[in-house]
Amino acid sequence: MIKNQGEYMPLIDSNINTFDLSVNIHEDRFSHMKGMMILYIGSQKNMRSHAIEFKAGSKIPSKNYKFKYVDAERSSIVLSLYNRKSFWSEDEQIGQLNIPLCDFNVYNTDTREIQFQNNGPKMTIQASRKEMF
Asked: What pTM did the predictor assign?
């Protein structure tokens, strides 16, 4: 119910587009590495807020993430893999992938197998993009 006739009340927020991402890391390719592996997932600004930490050579459960975006042409998802050999050493970047959201179909689930250039593990990502008009 509207209190005042002059008040503007939005019906639906049209900027709630969602991008669902599932990451499954294959374990056989990087068993020769030592230490902790860290995979950061997200936008360029906020990728460190979503991380998967695992020991090299261990079994990794798949993880699901949900992101919001405004424009698929300007938005991208960044996957960045680091190796931390010890607490005191600096993290060594193994690889980084920048995947534009417009590469994924709207309302369909895409499955892709990806790999970092420098010896990184193979990963299977499943993603779906939903747009609200």
From this structure: 0.75
